[in-house]
Amino acid sequence: MAKLILSMETTMLKEIPLSKERTTIGRKPHNDIQIDNLAISGEHAVVITILNDSFLEDLGSTNGTFVNGQSIKKHFLQNGDTIELGKYRLKYVAEVPQQTSNADFEKTMILRPGAAQKPAAEPVAPAPATTSLPPSAVEPAFAAHTSTSPGMPAQPPSVAPAAAPAPLLGAIQILSGGNAGKEMELTKTLTTLGKPGVQVAVIARRPHGYFITHVEGASFPVINGKALDAQAHQLVDHDVIELAGVKMEFFLKT
User: Fold this and answer.
1) At residue 89, does pLDDT exceed 50?
2) Beta bridge partners of residue 107, listed in sequence order
3) 35 φ, ψ to 5°?
4) Distance in angstroms (rounded) separating the CA atoms of residues 126 and 47
5) Does the reported pTM lie above 0.70?
6) Distance between CA 173 and CA 109 in Å, rounded?
7) How many whole angstroms separate alpha carbon 118 and alpha carbon 100?
């Protein structure tokens, strides 16, 4: 699990695990990370964490949010990044190696349902009749010969359990605007939708489905006529999403 290490000058104050999808930073007491300093706005910034990835977004703070000395509005955090808020520092520490959290992690997600094959076992010479083998080693050979062995009843062959079916691939079809009719397959671990500065959401591809989370904007995305809240929402086949003035449909490809 990733975490933030809060410090001021050379003094470390505390560690904050990013166990929530939204971790708010600000001067007011209701924030997850409260920094009681006049240089910090009441609601200064938010860190959105989805799977192994975290995004930092400035919430229109008075004095701004900086990462590694650069002013940002929205930033994809990487291991070792330092968030600067006035005299305070928040160091982002990702326990998962960064190279596995993007393209490599996406491949893992795709192959996990059983696409990866184990290498074939080396052929084993038949064991002498006097050799004592454990039942698990004898059973496959026995099952293969019971139908032809005289004087013995036929036994049904052992059947390996079927591999779990691969999850269906999700896609988005635009229903309104200049791009109406276009489709986009959701093959990536994270897909960002919307208009920066207006309204942005991210769709996360997880082993058990697709989830949409609000990232930026005063208003939340609308699913089937109902506005979302700050938590991730699982998408189901034929959900209609309204985002940044564009209507689109989520569907699963067969």
Assistant:
1) yes
2) none
3) -120, 105
4) 61
5) no
6) 23
7) 21
Backbone angles phi, psi at 21, to 5 degrees: -70, -30
What is the rounded CA–CA span in Å between residue 237 and residue 246? 18
The pairs formed by 93-97 with CB atoms below 8 angstroms and a separation of 24 or more are: 93/2, 93/3, 93/4, 93/5, 94/2, 94/52, 94/54, 95/1, 95/2, 95/3, 96/2, 96/52
Which token pair is 110? 């795709």
State how far the Cα of 202 lies from the Cα of 187, in Å rounded to an integer: 13
Please state, for a pLDDT cut of 90, what percent of the chain lies above it: 33
Within 10 angstroms of residue 56's Cβ, the number of other Cβ atoms is: 23
Q: Are 26 and 120 in contact (CB under 8 A)?
A: no
Comparison of pLDDT for 74 and 110, the residue scoring more: 74
Q: What is the pLDDT of residue 204?
A: 85
Q: Which residues contact 178 (CB under 8 A, 6 or more apart)?
A: none
Name the β-bridge partners of 67.
70, 83
Question: What are the residue ranges of helices labelled H in the chain?
Answer: 103-111, 135-145
